[in-house]
Write a structure and sequence with these properties.
This protein is of the alpha+beta class. It has five helices and eight strands.
Amino acid sequence: MQDSLSTIAPSSSYRKFLCSDPAISTSSCRWAGLPLAPDGTPLIRTGDTARDIFFVERGQLAVQEAGPDGTKIRLRTMTAGAIVGEVALYTRQPRGADVLALEETVVCRLSEASLARLEAESEAAAVLLHRLVAMNLSGKLTVANRLIQRARL
């Protein structure tokens, strides 16, 4: 995966969000557009070491894990605007689920090294990024809590 701002479409909302500061866009914000095949191409595999966070720009991803009998169980479908891979990166735990493309999907990848550079070089941008991830995680937690409440009824 190459690190290049030029590989992302100009309409990339995450790139605009993080890279509006010229110092960030030239040194810390190393984005790479990654088109994924529609045939279940894996972006994240269960058990892998987390080294990046992915922001879905276009398309659909399935988050799934193996059930007790090995059958794949879809946990969620993620679309444009979603963030994947953040939990394992923040907790330093292995990836907890597989994430696969369901159609041609474009994601932006923020590597762990680029995140560290961002934190070192632009505290304000890093705070904004972490706030964005926290808001996204809050939404995921709200959905999970609702599902648990419904299951109890």
